[in-house]
Design a protein that fits this description.
There is one protein chain. The chain is mostly helical. The chain has helices spanning 8-11, 18-41, 43-47, 55-86, 90-107, 118-141, 143-146, 152-179, 194-217, 231-248, 250-279, 285-313, 315-336, 350-379, 385-398, 402-414, 427-442, and strands spanning 341-343, 346-348. It has a two-stranded antiparallel ribbon. α10 packs across α11 and α13 (315-336) runs antiparallel to α14. It is globular, with a radius of gyration of 22 Å.
C-alpha cells in the first residue's frame, strides 16, 4: 500500500456533491431487483417448485450452483478490485459487471417450467450472483470518492436504505403486475409460467434503469503508474499486500475476520426469517410477504439512523450496539416462541412475538451492514479501496456456510427433545452463536482512526 498511508477520505477536502451521492445510491436501488426479486422472494421460489422436478431436488441443484458461484467470488473478487483500482477502471468495471448481471437476469425468461430447464436457470442465477458481487466490490469502493470523513457513515446508510426501499417497491410492482395481478393483461397469463418468467425481464429493466445515473455522475478513478499486471502477478501482489497488512496493521485483518462472521449472521436473519415465520409461527405466504415488506422498511430506517450515529460515535460502536440488539431480539423470539401469554386483560400471541421482535431484528441489521461498509472504507488507503473490498467479499464467502450449518445442526440436536414440529425454533440458537462469535472477535479490534496503514515493498 502507499507509503503515505493516507486514505482517500483523509486526502481530499472537496465537499460532498448531493447529485453524486444520489446517483451512487440509485445503483443500490436497482440492484434490489436481483437481490430481493430474483434470488430471495420470487424467482428462486419458482425455480425450486414442483415443476422443476420437486422442491428437494431443485433446491439441491440450486444450492450446488450457488456454492460453485461462491467459490468463484472468493477467487476473483480481491484481484478484480485491485486491477480496477490500478487501471483507473473502477466505474468501467462496475458498468460491465452490472450489465452482465442484467443480461443474465433477462435470460432467466427462458427458464421454462420443466425439469430440463432447472440447471439452466440455476446456472444463470449463480453466474449472476458472481457478477453482482464483483460489481459490488467496485460500487463499495466508490464510497471513498463521494464521501468525506464526516459524512461516510450517513452516506453508506443512505445506500443500504436505498437498496431496502428499492426492494420494497420492486416487490410491490411484481406482486401487482405478475404474481397477483391487479388487472388482466397478457403478462398475467400463467401459461408456461409466463407471468413469473416476465419477472426476469422486469428485473433486467429495473437494474439497467437505476444503474445508469452512477455511470454519468461519479468520475472515474485516476490510473496508477505501472498498472499493467498479468493475472498471476496480480495474485502475487495481493499476497504481498496481505502479508504487509498483517505485519503493520493486523487489526485490519481482524476486522475482515470479524465482519465475515457477523455478516453471515446478518444474512441468516433474512434468509431464515421467512422460514421461521411460516414453520414456527404459522404465517401464511401472504403474511410472510407483508412481514418482508415491513421488515425492509424498518431495516432501511435503521440503516439511515445508524449512518448518522456512525458519523458521531464511530462505526465500531454502531456495529457492537447492533449486534447486542440482535442477540437480545433473537433471544426473545427463542424464549417466547409461539406460546400465548395473558398479561392482565391483554393476550400476547406467538404471532405478536414474531412481529415485534422480528422487526427489532430487522431494525438492527441495517445499521450493522452500513457501519461495516463505512468501517472498511475508512481503512482503505488512497487508490486501493477496490482491493480491500475485494478481500471483504472473499472473507465473507469463506465463512458463508456457518449460519446455515449451525441453524440446521441446532434443529437436528433439538428434535429428539422437543414436541414434534417445534424443533425449528431452536435453529435460532445457531444464528445467535454466529452473531455472538462475530461480536467477540470484533471487540478487541481497534476503531479505524487508530489503525495504522500497511506499507508494501515494490514487486
Amino acid at each position: 500500500m502507499h507509503a503515505s498511508g493516507v486514505s482517500e477520505l483523509e486526502r481530499h477536502g472537496r465537499p460532498v456533491r448531493r447529485g453524486q451521492v444520489l446517483a451512487w445510491a440509485s445503483w443500490d436501488w436497482g440492484s434490489a431487483a436481483f437481490n430481493a426479486v430474483m434470488t430471495t422472494f420470487v424467482f428462486t421460489v419458482y425455480l425450486t417448485s414442483k415443476a422443476f422436478g420437486g422442491e428437494d431436488h431443485a433446491s439441491a441443484v440450486l444450492g450446488a450452483a450457488l456454492g460453485v458461484g461462491g467459490l468463484g467470488i472468493a477467487l476473483l473478487a480481491p484481484v478484480s478490485g485491485q486491477r480496477s483500482d490500478a487501471g483507473g477502471r473502477r466505474k468501467l468495471w462496475l458498468g460491465i459487471h452490472t450489465g452482465v448481471v442484467a443480461l443474465l437476469t433477462g435470460l432467466c425468461f427462458f427458464a421454462y417450467p420443466h425439469p430440463e430447464f432447472l440447471l439452466y436457470g440455476a446456472s444463470l442465477l449463480a453466474a449472476g450472483h458472481v457478477f453482482s458481487e464483483l460489481a459490488g466490490v467496485n460500487y463499495n469502493a466508490m464510497l471513498e470518492q463521494i464521501a468525506t470523513p464526516k459524512t461516510i457513515g450517513r452516506i453508506s446508510g443512505l445506500g443500504w436504505s436505498a437498496g431496502y426501499f428499492g426492494g420494497i417497491v420492486a416487490l410491490l410492482l411484481v406482486l401487482a403486475l405478475f404474481v397477483q395481478p391487479a388487472f388482466h393483461w397478457f403478462g398475467a397469463s400463467t401459461d408456461e409460467s409466463l407471468n413469473i418468467r416476465l419477472v426476469a425481464l422486469f428485473s433486467m429493466a429495473w437494474i439497467v434503469l437505476f444503474s445508469l445515473p452512477v455511470m454519468f455522475a461519479v468520475p472515474e478513478v485516476p490510473r496508477q503508474r505501472a498498472a499493467r499486471l498479468g493475472i498471476i502477478a496480480s495474485y502475487g501482489l495481493l499476497f504481498r499486500r496481505i502479508r504487509a497488512i498483517w505485519k503493520t496493521s493486523p487489526h485490519t485483518i481482524y476486522f475482515l475476520a470479524a465482519s465475515a462472521i457477523f455478516r453471515d449472521g446478518l444474512a441468516a436473519v433474512f434468509t431464515f426469517g421467512g422460514v421461521i415465520a411460516a414453520g414456527t409461527f404459522g404465517f401464511t405466504l401472504s403474511q410472510v410477504i407483508f412481514f418482508a415488506i415491513f421488515g425492509n422498511v424498518v431495516a432501511a430506517l435503521g440503516a439511515i439512523a445508524g449512518g448518522f450515529l456512525d458519523d458521531r460515535l464511530g462505526p465500531k460502536r454502531v456495529i457492537v450496539g447492533s449486534l447486542v440488539g440482535l442477540l437480545v431480539a433473537a433471544g426473545a423470539v427463542l424464549a417466547l416462541g409461539n406460546a400465548e401469554y395473558h398479561l392482565g386483560g391483554f393476550l400476547w400471541t406467538g404471532g405478536l412475538t414474531f412481529w415485534v421482535f422480528g422487526l427489532f431484528l430487522c431494525l438492527f441489521v441495517g445499521p450493522a451492514q452500513s457501519a461495516a461498509r463505512a468501517y472498511l472504507a475508512r481503512l482503505a488507503p488512497d487508490g486501493e479501496a477496490g482491493e480491500l473490498f475485494g478481500l471483504y467479499a472473499t472473507t465473507g464467502r469463506a465463512v458463508s456456510f456457518l449460519a446455515p450449518a449451525l441453524f440446521s445442526l441446532c434443529i437436528t440436536i433439538a428434535t429428539p427433545f422437543v414436541a414434534p414440529g417445534s424443533a425449528q425454533r431452536w435453529g435460532i440458537v445457531g444464528i445467535m452463536a454466529v452473531l455472538l462469535a462475530g461480536l467477540l472477535v470484533l471487540l478487541p479490534v481497534k476503531p479505524p482512526a487508530r489503525v495504522a496503514t500497511a506499507v508494501v515493498p515494490p514487486a
